[in-house]
Design goal:
five-stranded mixed β-sheet, alpha/beta, globular, binds zinc ion, seven-stranded mixed β-sheet, Metallo-beta-lactamase, Chain A
């Protein structure tokens, strides 16, 4: 069943010469952003989309921008909303990711689809990266240089950001969320703070977050403020003998109530509690428990409009 989406259609924005952001409103669950770099007849796609239909729509949207389909697809991280659409491009493109992202993709498979069985996912197949890197990599697309920088654990164990030093455009993947709540189910709160510091050092002018509208460097301040608030909320909750779920239920969300998907507070608190008790960044936690507590807090499984 294809259910009508209450969200606006995706759209492209050229943020610098030949540098395009593909934005999928409203940026909530599984409505991720992508990027498309075109220079001198060559092109690179940064991330794909969650469903077959959305990946095909992305392919159609970028087709007029370049005579050739993308030569590379970069996956910023392993999550299905950013990677399930790889197969739509893999005939022509080499899929590139950090080696850890590839192994996470392999073990996650299509698990995400089981969380939202009512979404029309289409005929998906997992297309794993065929080119992996470890420390850092550079792509040279015509006149454009794109640096692939691994950071984390933060959102996942390793996330790749794509940084264009000349244009000062940062494709941050889900390390940064714009108008949506950060999400550290698989990553780290302290690691996210560290990653924000490393992104700040790049001095970006334009930020394409993994979800939500285009942003500037102020998004780094917002993210840092959220993670610090989260750490102090976790410390207060733990001191009061509350579980992460109880702490979330008693919390005054303040400015964070305006962000999409604020229920991510619950898994984020689980992560902050664990780290305060000595868990290392990215340590495997009980993901089912974190997710079911989130559903309990929200009152139901959150809506996914993919
Ligand atoms: Zn993600």
């Amino acid at each position: 069943m294809v259910k009508p989406s209450p969200t606006a259609p995706p759209y492209l924005r050229e943020v610098a010469d030949g540098v395009h952001a593909y934005l999928q409103p409203d940026g909530g669950w599984c409505l991720n952003n992508a990027g498309y770099l075109v220079s001198d007849g060559q092109s690179v796609l940064i991330d794909t989309a969650a469903t077959e239909a959305r990946a095909l729509a992305l392919k159609q949207a970028i087709a007029p921008l370049s005579a050739q389909p993308p030569r590379f697809v970069v996956n910023t991280h392993s999550h299905g909303d950013h990677t399930f659409g790889n197969f739509v491009f893999a005939d022509h493109a080499v899929v590139v990711a950090h080696e850890r992202t590839r192994s996470e993709m392999e073990s996650l498979g299509l698990h995400l689809t089981t969380l939202w069985p009512n979404v029309c996912w289409g005929e998906l197949s997992v297309e794993l990266p065929t080119l992996t890197y470890r420390d850092r990599a550079s792509l040279h697309i015509g006149d454009t240089s794109a640096e692939l920088i691994p950071l984390g654990p933060a959102h996942t164990f390793v996330d790749t950001v794509v940084w264009l030093p000349e244009q000062r455009v940062l494709f941050a993947g889900d390390l940064l969320m714009s108008g949506a709540t950060p999400f550290c189910l698989m990553g780290s709160i302290s690691g996210s703070l560290e990653a924000v510091g490393q992104l700040r050092a790049l001095d970006p002018e334009t930020i394409v977050a993994g979800h939500g509208p285009l942003a500037g460097p102020e998004l780094l301040d917002t993210a840092e403020r959220y993670f610090r608030w989260l750490q102090s909320l976790a410390a207060e909750g733990a001191a009061a003998g509350l579980t992460p779920l109880q702490t979330a239920r008693e919390a005054d969300l303040g400015e964070w109530a305006e962000l999409l998907d604020s229920e991510r507070l619950v898994p984020n608190l689980h992560r902050a509690y664990a780290e305060a008790q000595g868990a290392f960044p990215g340590q495997q936690l009980d993901i089912e428990k974190m997710f079911s507590d989130m559903v309990a807090y929200h009152g139901r499984v959150p809506e996914c409009h993919a």
